[in-house]
């Protein structure tokens, strides 16, 4: 395939990695990277933890400094893509300009699901998605006394840990019955609940929000779904994201919980790829069912896959999914997808905050959750990436260690 120009819409992890990988693999054509935020492309995961705490600065967020883009001849365009002219292979920008492409890559990501209650527009109500969000939030979280967090997923709990560390009184509202219920096992939820409670965080499960209250345009409290009033100087919500499909949808591309792509990450238009948080693909680890994953690993690996295909080395995408979250002194790493698991085996200790939960489905290992056990995580990624698969009976044996089993069963 001879491509004179590749245009990438979205300058997050996936978009940046496509551009970098194309150059790394020897592509010599034109690369245009279109992003709708000011400044250089940056990492998002630290925004809700290390960056908020001041442990890293703005420069440490950047994927690469400015001279990288110059040296690699990556044209970074700060503008909003407003339409795709598929017939003439052009991306139209809010500025009125048009950028021509031989191949278009959509890495448009996702946006925070809005808080659907009265008062969500008040000053002091935040989602954490962009550097601008984090910059506005950082001074406030150091000043306030009462923080309400809506949602006990990764983002909500990362922020809860930060706020507690900085001395705030933190109250978490969660519609589910345990922390991170959609992502981890009951055993791992229990460990994280106990840790957060030890840090002073209060939880209300099976509890939602009916309104945010305020005066003079600023938040002062919230009303819960059971009618209680909680004081709040700051409300932070993390209740999921919505894929940014509008550009693709208006261009007539197939949409299915994101932009629908095939195993090679091609959309319904052979001149357009999609990847990262916005792409819904047939996931090998999920029975090839249409799946949309929100992770740095998935974005980066899909980007490398697309770059290789554009350079004549196509291969179906099948990388093992893995995820992580840092909360206080806890690092949770997950390898694989645990949906539908029917049994678990635990290694380590909940009390010591060093625990691995091995999740099995039909007696086959499908995922491993590891808290402060990085060796188990690395072994799990290797085990889940190739046969043979570990069985529950083997894992339950006295003295079992993941690293030892992995080493003994290498090809």
From TrEMBL:
Domain of life: Bacteria
EC number(s) per entry: 1.18.1.-
Name of a matching Pfam family: Pyr_redox_2
PANTHER family the UniProt entry points to: APOPTOSIS-INDUCING FACTOR 1, RIESKE DOMAIN-CONTAINING PROTEIN-RELATED
Protein name: Rhodocoxin reductase
GO terms under cellular component: cytoplasm
Domain Reductase C-terminal: 322-403
This protein's record includes keyword Transmembrane helix: no
Organism in which the protein naturally occurs: Pseudomonas paraeruginosa
